[in-house]
Amino acid sequence: MSTPIETILGHEFSRPELLREAMTHRSAIHGRTRGKGRDSNERMEFIGDRVLGLLIAEWLIDRFPGEQEGELGRRLAHLVSQPVLAGVAEAIGLGEALSVSPGEARAGVRRRATVLADALEAALGALYLDGGLERARMFVRRAWDDAMNAQVAPPKDAKTALQEWVQARGMGLPHYDVVSRAGPPHAPAFVISVTVGEFTGTGTAGSKRAAEQLAAEELLRALNI
Fold first, then answer.
1. Could you say which of 21, 45, 118, 121 is catalytic?
2. Residues 32 and 70 in one domain
3. Is 71 a catalytic residue?
4. Could you tell me the pTM of the whole model?
C-alpha cells in the first residue's frame, strides 16, 4: 500500500529508504553520526537538482521549438528557481511529509521556501534513483504543468528586470553586497543584499550569482514589479 508521499510522487518505492532520506531535514538528524541510521536529504537534493534541470530543459525544447538558447535559458532559470520550487512543493503538500526536529516544526520550518524547495529536489532525486528517468519525467510534467503553462513570453531574469526598471526611472544602478558567507567549501551559502534607493532585498544560495538573482527577485516583489 502506497504512503501519502508515494501517492504525491506517483510511485511506490522498491527502496523506501531513499524516500525516507529525501524526506529528512538535517535538523532531524542533529547529533547523530552520519551513516548511522538515516541521513539528511542533502545528497538526494544534489542529484534531484541535476535531474530537474535536465527534465525541464528537455520539456522546454519540445514545447518551444522556435526559441533559442537565451530565451530557453531564461525560462529554465525561472522554472527551477526557489520561488517556483517552493510553490510546487506547497501545492502538492510535500512539506507535511518532511521529517524535522520538534523545535524546527514549532518554528514553522516546513513552510520556509528554502526548505520546501530543497525537499522537492530531494524527493525528485529519490524518485529518479528508485524509478528511473521516465517516472521522474511523469512527476515533473504533472507537478510543473501550471508553472510551465503560465509562461507566455520568456521571462527576464530578475537582475535584468531590476536594472531596466531603475534605468527607466533615471535612478542609480542596483548595488549588490555580500552580507555573509557560511558553510564548507563544497557547500557554501552566500547571503547577498541588493539596494535601490531606500529599498533592499536579500537572497541566500550556494553561489553569489544565484543569491543575487534571489535578492533581485525579493526587491522586485517589494517594488510590486
1. 121
2. yes
3. no
4. 0.70
